[in-house]
Backbone:
């Protein structure tokens, strides 16, 4: 009986599939140069949103605002490193619930352009690739390197079957799927790698789905990024000549729809550089030209969001350039998901080409200035090593990297003893610029200064034979774009003191987040002082209120901050341009006591406190040579 039922269901399932695939289709029309949805001419006006940069409590709010802006699609990336934190260990739950997000998008009647990588750039840690790939130090990422392919195939073997039922012709809302990402900007230009990916995507998703590539509008990028069998699209911002940009797409796709897969509404920020903005008027004018040409467009970003925790990436251009915690991007929806003037201008352009949905745009989310909160309880990082690094430390003659010790991000402590007395002073320095990316130096627990990749290669210290030398080394995010994304972290090369190479290191991987979320505040005695890596803890209540806010760190220097165990990200007000961290209301409790933990790495203010304000401040940059050489 059971067997019969099963057979019957298979038959019915087959019939259903048959029916749906004739009803629902999404194709390229090479005669009329457009997409065809269910056989009819179709053009998408889409916006990028990253579920991994928006708290799940706000997914629906942001998507509704995108729908009310007149968009008919959203474009999303899938970060491999977010979903496979360790080899073979997958996480699709909580704020990583990709299918829940896809279902919400469908409920709001929006289509999806999916970009599952496996490399995504996105100004995301290592461009979305897992750092554990680097446990094989000479791995050639994004090539036919066999270890890379093996890991990638295993990941795609988990991801793509989850995607398949969400494809448009299977009854879902994914209309197209991008393969790789701006591959033409990578050094390798390995067509066999792209061919391999094409094979994996086809084998898993079938022949019907539209697969495409995206590259910048230069001949060299398009040459290495495109492949027969993948529809070639381009990306460009409002400063480019729209006609000329699409002429480059036409070199590779003489027929078919014009597509700008990343039309830049704004731009990213680097620590220590000016805040990026793009004029709403220029964005609107260029968007109008794109739409007048009948082209399809995705606005990157429509909602930028936040690089919570340690997820921001970095670029490498005349030196290492880490990206800020805020990914506001000067996008039409702000970091906190609020409609901006830019959104309304864009919406009015869209209204000239397709009907806007009826009804009002949802208002900005309420914000609350909770005011000052004292964080008086200080405990030096070195005093809670046993909590932060519960396993046994590693011993090594010479420094080893984060990757070798399977530390994905955050901090590791490198400890050794001074091999000789230094009477005057001697230069402690990183050979070959080998500090990735910052090292906070302590001698017998006293803060001495900071080494910084590409900026501060050495500091003078003096001390006695046998003094304890500690380097708390911080990753500021792995490089996400360009020629080489094998960006190892920690002490990459030796540390020298005067003329001798330091040896006999004790290395402590630090798991600060687990400690802060589960074992805080530590019972260790509070310590005095205000320099060097230390935690400052305080509590506050917000009777009945749990609205969004922004956290300012007046007088603080550099660090990381948690609220109720949620890692809000990095702060660095002495560099800027970001001066406030976004605090989603969903991280706060209106009924219980809220806990703030600040990890200050360099110098805390006297009478340490933080300040909750109701407006963001993202555009105040300081010249580092003046302000933060402490
Ligand atoms: C998955 O990730 C969430 C955070 O996004 C975390 O709370 C949860 O513990 C993770 N699950 C597993 C099994 O690691
Ligand atoms: C854009 O390029 C086209 C073709 O080269 C040219 O005719 C047009 O004048 C350019 N537009 C602008 C605004 O420069
Ligand atoms: C270290 O001290 C030496 C000798 O006093 C001095 O020349 C040098 O500039 C100092 N280096 C740094 C990085 O402070
Ligand atoms: C990438 O960087 C790593 C580490 O700095 C280096 O070993 C490797 O040779 C580089 N690869 C390329 C292709 O430049
Ligand atoms: C450190 O120096 C030692 C001795 O010269 C050398 O064997 C070792 O490879 C170096 N290690 C690194 C990480 O550069
Ligand atoms: C910074 O941004 C605010 C709005 O948040 C704006 O009023 C101000 O003019 C900006 N300042 C600079 C220097 O651009
Ligand atoms: C920072 O100050 C130095 C020294 O005055 C100057 O040369 C440099 O151009 C300044 N940089 C910025 C970004 O203002």
Residues:
């Amino acid at each position: 009986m059971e067997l019969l039922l099963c057979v019957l269901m298979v038959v019915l399932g087959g019939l259903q599939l048959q029916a749906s695939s004739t009803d629902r289709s999404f194709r390229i029309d090479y005669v009329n140069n457009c997409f065809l949805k269910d056989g009819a001419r179709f053009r998408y006006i889409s916006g990028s949103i990253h579920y991994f940069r928006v708290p799940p409590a706000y997914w629906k709010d942001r998507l509704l605002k995108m729908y009310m802006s007149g968009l008919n699609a959203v474009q999303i990336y899938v970060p491999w490193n977010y979903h496979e934190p360790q080899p073979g260990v997958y996480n699709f739950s909580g704020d990583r619930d990709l299918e829940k997000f896809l279902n919400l998008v469908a409920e709001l009647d929006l289509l999806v352009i999916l970009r599952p990588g496996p490399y995504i750039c996105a100004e995301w840690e290592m461009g979305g690739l897992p750092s554990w790939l680097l446990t094989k130090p000479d791995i050639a990422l994004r090539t036919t390197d066999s270890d890379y392919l093996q890991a990638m195939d295993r990941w795609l073997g988990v991801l793509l079957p989850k995607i398949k039922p969400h494809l448009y012709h299977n009854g879902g809302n994914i209309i197209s799927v991008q393969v790789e990402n701006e591959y033409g900007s990578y050094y390798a230009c390995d067509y066999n790698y792209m061919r391999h990916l094409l094979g994996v995507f086809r084998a898993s998703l079938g022949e019907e789905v539209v697969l495409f590539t995206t590259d910048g509008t230069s001949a060299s990028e398009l040459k290495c990024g495109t492949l027969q069998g993948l529809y070639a699209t381009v990306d460009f911002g409002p400063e480019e000549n729209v006609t000329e940009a699409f002429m480059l797409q036409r070199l590779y796709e003489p027929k078919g729809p014009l597509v700008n897969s990343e039309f830049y509404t704004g731009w990213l920020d680097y620590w220590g550089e000016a805040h990026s903005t793009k004029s709403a008027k220029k964005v609107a004018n260029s968007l109008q030209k794109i739409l007048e040409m009948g082209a399809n467009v995705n606005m990157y970003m429509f909602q930028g969001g936040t690089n919570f925790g340690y997820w921001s990436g970095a670029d490498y251009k005349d030196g290492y350039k880490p990206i800020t915690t805020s990914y506001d991007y000067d996008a039409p929806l702000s970091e906190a998901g609020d409609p901006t003037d830019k959104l309304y201008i864009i919406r009015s352009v869209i209204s000239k080409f397709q009907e806007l949905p009826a009804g009002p745009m949802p208002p900005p989310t309420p914000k609350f200035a909770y005011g000052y909160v004292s964080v008086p309880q200080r405990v030096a990082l070195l005093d809670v090593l046993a909590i932060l690094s519960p396993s046994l430390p590693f011993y090594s003659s010479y420094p080893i990297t984060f990757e070798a010790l399977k530390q994905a991000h955050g901090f590791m402590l490198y400890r050794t003893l001074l091999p000789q007395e230094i009477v005057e002073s001697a230069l402690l320095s990183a050979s070959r610029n080998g500090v990735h990316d910052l090292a906070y130096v302590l001698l017998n627990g006293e803060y001495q200064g900071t080494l910084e990749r590409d900026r501060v290669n050495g500091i003078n210290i003096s001390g006695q034979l046998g003094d304890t030398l500690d380097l708390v080394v911080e990753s500021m995010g792995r490089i996400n774009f360009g020629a080489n994304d094998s960006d190892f972290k920690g002490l990459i090369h030796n540390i020298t003191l005067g003329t001798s190479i330091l040896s006999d290191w004790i290395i402590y991987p630090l798991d600060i987040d687990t400690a802060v979320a589960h074992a805080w505040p530590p019972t260790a005695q509070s310590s005095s002082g205000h320099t060097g890596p230390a935690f400052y803890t305080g509590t506050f209540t917000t009777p009945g209120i749990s609205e969004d806010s922004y956290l300012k760190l007046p007088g603080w220097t550099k660090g990381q901050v948690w609220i109720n165990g949620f890692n809000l990200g990095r702060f660095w007000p002495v560099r800027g341009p970001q001066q406030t961290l976004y605090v989603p209301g969903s991280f706060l409790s209106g009924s219980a006591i809220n806990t703030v933990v600040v990890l200050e790495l360099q110098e805390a203010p006297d009478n340490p406190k933080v300040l909750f304000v109701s407006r963001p401040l993202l555009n105040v940059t300081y010249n580092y040579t003046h302000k933060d050489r402490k």
Summary: Confidence is low (pLDDT under 50) at residues 1-21, 626-630. The first helix runs from residue 2 to 23. Residues 619 surround 2-acetamido-2-deoxy-beta-D-glucopyranose (ligand 6) (CB under 6 Å). The first strand starts at residue 26 and ends at 29.
